[in-house]
Amino acid sequence: MTRAYDSAGDGAKTSSAKGMSYSDYLSLDPILGAQNRRSDAHDEMLFIIQHQTSELWMRLALHELSTAREELTQGQFPAAFKMLTRVARIFEQLNNAWDVLRTMTPSEYTEFRAELGTSSGFQSHQYRLIEFILGNRNRAMLKVHEHRPELRHMLAQELETKSLYHVALDSLAKQLNTRFDPAIYRMDRPHTANDQVMDAWTRVYRAPHDFWTLYELAEKLVDLEDYFRRWRFNHVTTVERIIGFKPGTGGTSGVKYLRKMLEVELFPELWNMRGQL
Predict the structure, then answer these.
(1) 127 in a domain, yes or no?
(2) Which end of the chain is less crowded, N or C, counting CB atoms within 10 A of the terminal residue's CB?
């Protein structure tokens, strides 16, 4: 006869009346109480949780990216590499989430789409901050966040800080004993490919054992952008599958706008130089 499992016999705490509980530590009450549907549509719950969990993963990505940038600035490469690897895996997790959202059909989305009003993922300040940290910067995007002065201020501050790629280029220049044109360090616009930078990365890739730290840094950045690109691609296909070519709720052209974003390169020299090897 099989006996019922006795958790107390294993020393498990069966009462949290006098200590920290799982729910308390994770603040589960406010988190699990934040799924406020505005319609009776069954699939609105899926839509809300998909985007809430994405924002949580992006919060972790920002935590890792900010610290990785600090570690690179201080020359602490192993710690930075660990964090960049983690961010790539976070975007793998975000990629997998699209598979769940794609189980929702256009008919099901139509049942509650009107409830979104003018809200849109385009307005996600965390996503914009990730792009700013990685180097895809555009001061005009601050206007999207004018209704939240504290968020606009945070994003504006990021535009006054070297991007993650800028810091990587500092390490590249230092170890190769060279100097890059100051123009490549523009803070408020997307980084564009530079021949001097591409030649420097090419030198690293032609002698990886001589510049192993830089070589590993480059591959960590490429890996991160690879997963980031996949996330963007899956976003496009998911939106097209669910709403076709309708305009986005936030006023963008929807799929057409998202397809333009697929052309953005965060670290262009690291991709372009591969044809020179």
Answers:
(1) no
(2) N
